């Protein structure tokens, strides 16, 4: 029986996971965050303290693959920035990120009654990787002479007085890749611009190192942190909606690990149990 | 000459960036700005090379009717379709390009990425075993982090599990990560010096 459990058909596990992720949506189960992670709180507090009109550079360095996890946090952070009347300068280091930047900035801008070019801008994508990060430290308008819609950046009110990192109040990178490492190493270390990170849970372990050293001012770790941020700004949205599914999925994983271990040890014990030994053959010495 | 010229360029560029970092002279800064522009332009050429390589690989596969050649056809077809939609109707909100991106590319990419959860669930069931003391510690830590990251974990433990989770992430995890980072950083410095000084030549096609 234990062996059977141990070698369960993987399709059954897949079906179970599918059902478990789907069920909370159908049952409209709610799982609002009870505890705010200190790093989520520190990013929120940092933005709260920004004076109105502060230019904030947000690099949306994610592609459609990680959209379900990072898009909600991009929305929540941008909503908060608009509420604080920050000047939002959006860009991306990935070609497939351009349309998502547009999507986030258009939607949050419309909600907050902010205007493109005056309160926010999408600078789009530029090839070059590190050269772009370093170039922004020298002259932003030289790296991005036009925005994503090919309008000249020189006369844009949102970029008035913004020459390089020295004029940026905060740099936020939202990414499911190693890109925040490059922003920290080159933008923060060289030009001393304050950096915050929003990332997937898988990638987050890479950036705890920089939190401890104070190289980043805050971090959103996965969809759970996005839900916490939605709670902080008082706008429940996609992250809150996704949390029940994530919760159910996590609980199933724990259950699978426990059942897998119980089955493993039970089957091992079953195999090691001594069976009734046959009597020793007569040696001929006994009389 | 084919070997010496790239080596000399690598040496000069490497030494320039090294000196420029420590000597913030205006003249050096001007050259630095120009070199950053060059790097961006080279990045664009790299994209063109990447596209060339993509076409060559897939056209060869279709010509030779190699295994799964149909997928190559779909790759090239999708590429040209998006190119035509983008050039023809733009990429603004409501354009066919954006429609394809939102309703085809985003769901496809997200689906492929989310398959990871299914493999992880199956792998967790089959291989995550408390076979030794180290494996048991790892397993217990993983279970704490998995539960500590969800709202239910905080609710059931009155906030203790999320705090323990943070402790695990901040101390043992950061300690291990930092050790790895130091190793990587030293390796990067050593490799960079080898490339600048021309000792490492594998990037030029040599040994």
Describe the SSE topology.
The complex is a heterodimer of chains A (287) and B (207).
Chain A: H1 2-6, H2 10-27, H3 38-48, E1 55-61, H4 67-83, E2 87-92, H5 98-112, E3 120-125, H6 130-136, H7 140-143, E4 170-175, H8 179-191, E5 195-199, H9 201-204, H10 208-212, E6 216-221, H11 222-233, H12 238-272
Parallel strand pairs in A: 1-2, 1-4, 2-3, 4-5, 5-6
Chain B: H1 4-22, H2 26-63, H3 69-89, H4 96-127, H5 133-148, H6 151-156, H7 160-196
Walk me through what this model shows.
- The complex is a heterodimer of chains A (287) and B (207).
- Chain A is α/β, with parallel strands linked by helices.
- Chain A has 12 helices and 6 strands.
- Chain A is elongated, with a radius of gyration of 26 Å.
- The two termini of chain A are 47 Å apart.
- Chain B is mainly α and 207 residues long.
- Chain B has helices at residues 4-22, 26-63, 69-89, 96-127, 133-148, 151-156, 160-196.
- At the A-B interface, α2, α5, α6, α10 and α11 of A face α2, α4, α5, α6 and α7 of B.
Q: Name the average pLDDT of chain A.
A: 90
Strand order of the largest sheet of chain A: 3-2-1-4-5-6
Radius of gyration of chain A: 26 Å
Instruction: Spell the H/E element sequence of chain B.
Output: HHHHHHH
Helix tally of chain B equals: 7
Quaternary structure state of the chains depicted: heterodimer
Strand content of chain B: under 5%
Largest sheet features of chain B: none
Distance between the termini of chain A: 47 Å
């Amino acid at each position: 029986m234990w062996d059977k459990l141990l070698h369960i058909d993987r399709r059954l596990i897949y079906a179970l996971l599918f059902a478990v992720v789907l069920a909370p949506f159908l049952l409209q189960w709610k799982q609002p965050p009870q505890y705010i992670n200190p790093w989520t709180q520190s990013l929120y507090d940092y933005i709260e303290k920004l004076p109105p009109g502060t230019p904030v550079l947000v690099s949306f360095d994610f592609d459609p693959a990680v959209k379900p996890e990072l898009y909600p946090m991009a929305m929540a952070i941008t909503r908060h920035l608009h509420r604080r009347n920050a000047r939002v300068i959006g860009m991306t280091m990935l070609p497939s990120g351009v349309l998502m930047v547009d999507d986030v900035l258009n939607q949050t801008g419309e909600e907050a009654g902010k205007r493109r070019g005056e309160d926010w801008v999408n600078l789009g994508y530029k090839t070059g990787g590190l050269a772009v990060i370093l170039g922004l430290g020298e002259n932003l308008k030289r790296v991005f002479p036009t925005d994503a819609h090919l309008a000249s950046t020189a006369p844009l009110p949102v970029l008035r007085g913004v020459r390089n990192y020295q004029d940026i109040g905060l740099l936020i990178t939202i990414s499911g890749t190693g890109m925040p490492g490059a922003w920290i190493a080159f933008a923060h270390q060289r030009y001393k611009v304050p950096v915050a990170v929003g990332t997937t849970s898988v990638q987050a372990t890479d950036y705890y190192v920089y939190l401890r050293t104070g190289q980043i001012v805050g971090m959103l770790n996965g969809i759970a942190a996005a839900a916490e941020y939605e709670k902080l700004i008082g706008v429940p949205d996609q992250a809150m909606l996704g949390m029940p599914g994530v919760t159910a999925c996590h609980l199933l994983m724990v259950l699978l690990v426990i059942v897998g271990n119980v089955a493993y040890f039970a089957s091992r014990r079953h195999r090691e149990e001594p069976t009734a030994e046959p009597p020793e053959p007569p040696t001929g010495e006994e009389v | 000459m084919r070997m010496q010229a790239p080596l000399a360029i690598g040496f000069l560029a490497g030494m320039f960036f090294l000196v420029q970092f420590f000597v913030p002279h205006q003249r050096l800064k001007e050259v630095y700005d120009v070199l950053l522009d060059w790097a961006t332009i080279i990045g664009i050429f790299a994209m063109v090379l990447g596209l060339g390589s993509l076409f060559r690989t897939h056209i060869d596969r279709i010509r030779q009717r190699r295994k799964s050649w149909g997928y190559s056809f779909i790759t090239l077809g999708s590429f040209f379709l998006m190119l035509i939609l983008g050039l023809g109707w733009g990429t603004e909100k409501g354009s066919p390009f954006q429609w394809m991106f939102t309703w085809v590319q985003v769901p496809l990419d997200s689906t492929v990425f989310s398959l990871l959860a299914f493999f992880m669930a199956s792998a967790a069931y089959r291989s995550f075993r408390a076979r030794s003391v180290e494996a048991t510690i790892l397993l217990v830590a993983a279970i704490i982090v998995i539960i500590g990251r969800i709202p239910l974990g905080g609710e059931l433990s009155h906030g203790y599990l999320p705090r323990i989770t943070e402790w695990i992430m901040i101390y043992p995890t950061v300690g291990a990560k930092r050790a790895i980072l130091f190793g990587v950083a030293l390796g990067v410095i050593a490799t960079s010096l080898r490339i600048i000084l021309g000792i490492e030549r594998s990037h030029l096609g040599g040994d």
